[in-house]
Amino acid sequence: MASGHDGRELVEVLTSHLPAGSSVLELGMGPGVDLDILAQYYSVTGSDNSKVFLNLYRETHPDADLLVLDAEKLETDRSFDCIYSNKVLMHLSKDALCRSFTRQLKLLTEDGLVMHSFWHGSREEHLQGLRFVYYTEEELLGMIGSGYETVKSDRYSEMGKDDSFYIILRKKHEK
């Protein structure tokens, strides 16, 4: 579905907010296109809920740091400076997305960031057995809870004018 598209533009934005060498977990890495781009700047860990994608990637990257992770539950005891996804969390229900954001907080280091991209809109559809939930920036930011502060949110064009947006959030300091 994402053939011909990668997150190079997103990673370039991230580099102005996250120091080189930081640890980054990519959620839903699929074939690993964005993971390879992220690896040019960061210490990366790829993850997917599909062992097929992980095994295919490992064939050409035998030393890759990969985890089998469900994007909602995120069952790992590791921590990261940043959690990144490119049009992955939109496959979760709204309730599951809220749980994912809560769980992501627990995996972030102090001052850790998340960067996620979404399709822009206000609908839900199902294609080829997959859920696609479209959000506005306002709706999404209203759902994520009080554990984050917004660093940046912006629209961009992937397949049509301003059809997508990304958010960068920082973990709030615990008081």
Provide structural commentary.
With 175 residues, the chain is α/β, with parallel strands linked by helices. It has one domain: Vaccinia Virus protein VP39 (Rossmann fold, 3-Layer(aba) Sandwich). It has five helices and nine strands, in the order H-E-H-E-H-E-E-H-E-E-E-H-E-E. The protein has helices at 8-15, 33-38, 51-60, 94-107, 137-143, and strands at 23-26, 43-48, 66-68, 80-86, 108-119, 124-127, 130-133, 148-156, 164-171. The strands form two sheets. The protein has a seven-stranded mixed sheet. Strands 6-7 form a two-stranded antiparallel ribbon. Helix 4 links the parallel strand 4 and strand 5 (108-119). The longest helix is centred in the middle third of the chain and has 14 residues, at 94-107. The mean pLDDT is 93.
Can you describe this structure in just a few lines?
By secondary structure, the protein is α/β, with parallel strands linked by helices.
- Whole-angstrom Rg: 15 Å
Q: State which percent range the strand residues make up.
A: 25-35%
CATH superfamily: Vaccinia Virus protein VP39
Distance between the termini: 43 Å
Task: Write the CATH fold name.
Answer: Rossmann fold
Tell me, rounded to a whole number, the average pLDDT. 93
Report the strand count. 9
Largest sheet: 7 strands, mixed
Total individual domains = 1
Q: Using the 3D structure, state the CATH architecture.
A: 3-Layer(aba) Sandwich
* Backbone shape: globular
Assembly state of the chains shown: single chain
Q: What helical percentage do the residues reach?
A: 25-40%
Strand order of the largest sheet: 3-2-1-4-5-9-8
- Based on secondary structure, the structural category is alpha/beta
- Number of helices, counting only DSSP H or I runs of 4 residues or more: 5
Question: Helix and strand string, N-terminal first?
Answer: HEHEHEEHEEEHEE
- Poorly predicted regions are none
State the CATH class. Alpha Beta
